[in-house]
């Protein structure tokens, strides 16, 4: 067909030449957009690792050891593996052929040396909390005990590592407290007293903080909700691990109301009190956890 004889229709060669000129002009911009799109995909993948609802597990490493599967652990630790199916951490197990790498060894490391040594739990001689090292020969470490070092827990719970770096925190990094003192890894909820348990977390915190546990004649209602209503147990920028600073913490529950006659919290006008300091330091509500003599928690 002779395209030159068709009215108002450009010749194909001229069309191709025109598109070639357009592409030559747009190509640098298109390539730049392709690079940006590729970077966006990479960043999206990186962000997804931090935002997925499931944990990306990095099992600990023991030089010279291989994975043997949780069934080998059950031969000696039947009392633990029996209840492990009820544990929060049971979700770290996987069915099928992947199970050999996911289970007990997700936290304790590959257990072949531990099994071969008939359950030897010897810790390396040059071990120190937070930085475990494996010695050689007869002193070689065969298994990892997360109670001795929280570094194993931090492999998954990265946000908690940051919390323990805050100015006020439980002395986990210092080795005086371990995650296992407050959490139960092997059965039930990982948070002792949490979830649907019949006891609040005061049962856990009260093991160490006996003076705050009570019982009290006049109890602060917040104690019924649990210690974490006011405290962040891992770390905080505020003293005493408080979730908010000064009276801002109290006003989360005790609402204030400004009226023509003053500033009321409850039925009491508080304008003159708020100028003197924090609720529990101004001589008003010093017994913040509970009192044996004052319904206003004054002492």
What does this structure look like?
The chain has 299 residues and is mainly alpha-helical. Among the domains are: 70-150, no CATH class; 191-291, no CATH class. Helices cover 29% and strands 6% of the residues. The chain contains 12 helices and 7 strands. Residues 2-6, 46-51 and 124-138 have low confidence and may be disordered.
Characterize the overall form: flat
* Main sheet makeup: 3 strands, antiparallel
**Strand line-up of the largest beta sheet:** 4-5-6
Question: What percentage of the residues does DSSP assign to strands (E)?
Answer: 5-15%
- Residues in helices, as a percent range: 25-40%
Low-pLDDT windows of residues: 2-6, 46-51, 124-138
**What value does the Rg take, in angstroms?**
31 Å
Please give the count of helices.
12
SSE run: HHHHHHHEHHEHEHEEEHE
Tell me the structural class.
Answer: mainly alpha
Distance between the termini: 104 Å
Mean pLDDT, as a whole number?
75
Oligomer: single chain
- Count of strand segments: 7
Which secondary structure elements does this structure contain, and how are they paired or packed?
Blueprint: H1 12-51, H2 70-74, H3 78-81, H4 105-108, H5 112-116, H6 151-154, H7 158-163, E1 168-169, H8 202-205, H9 210-213, E2 218-219, H10 222-225, E3 235-236, H11 247-250, E4 256-259, E5 262-265, E6 268-269, H12 271-274, E7 290-291
Antiparallel strand pairs: 1-3, 2-7, 4-5, 5-6
């Amino acid at each position: 067909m002779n395209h030159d004889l068709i009215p108002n229709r450009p010749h194909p060669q001229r069309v191709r030449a025109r598109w070639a000129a357009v592409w030559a002009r747009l190509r640098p911009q298109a390539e730049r957009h392709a690079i940006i799109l590729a970077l966006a995909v990479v960043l999206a993948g990186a962000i997804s690792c931090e935002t997925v609802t499931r944990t990306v597990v990095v099992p600990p490493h023991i030089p010279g050891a291989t994975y043997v599967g949780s069934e080998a652990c059950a031969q000696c630790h039947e009392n633990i593996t029996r209840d492990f199916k009820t544990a929060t951490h049971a979700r770290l197990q996987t069915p099928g052929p992947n199970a050999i790498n996911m289970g007990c060894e997700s936290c304790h490391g590959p257990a072949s040396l531990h099994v071969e040594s008939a359950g030897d739990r010897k810790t390396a001689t040059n071990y120190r909390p937070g930085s475990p090292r494996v010695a050689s020969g007869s002193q070689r470490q065969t298994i990892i005990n997360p109670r001795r070092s929280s570094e194993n827990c931090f492999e998954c719970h990265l946000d908690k590592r940051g919390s323990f770096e805050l100015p006020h925190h439980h002395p986990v990094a210092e080795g005086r407290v371990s995650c296992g003192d407050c959490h139960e890894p092997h059965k039930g909820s990982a948070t002792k007293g949490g979830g649907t348990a019949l006891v609040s977390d005061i049962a856990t915190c009260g093991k160490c903080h006996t003076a705050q546990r009570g019982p009290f004649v006049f109890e602060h209602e917040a104690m019924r909700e649990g210690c974490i209503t006011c405290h962040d147990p891992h770390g905080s920028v505020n003293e005493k691990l408080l979730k908010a600073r000064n009276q801002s913490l109290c006003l989360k529950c005790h609402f204030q109301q400004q009226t023509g006659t003053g500033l009321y919290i409850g039925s009491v006008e508080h304008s003159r009190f708020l100028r003197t300091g924090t609720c529990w330091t101004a001589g008003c509500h010093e017994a913040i956890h509970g009192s044996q003599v004052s319904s206003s928690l004054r002492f």
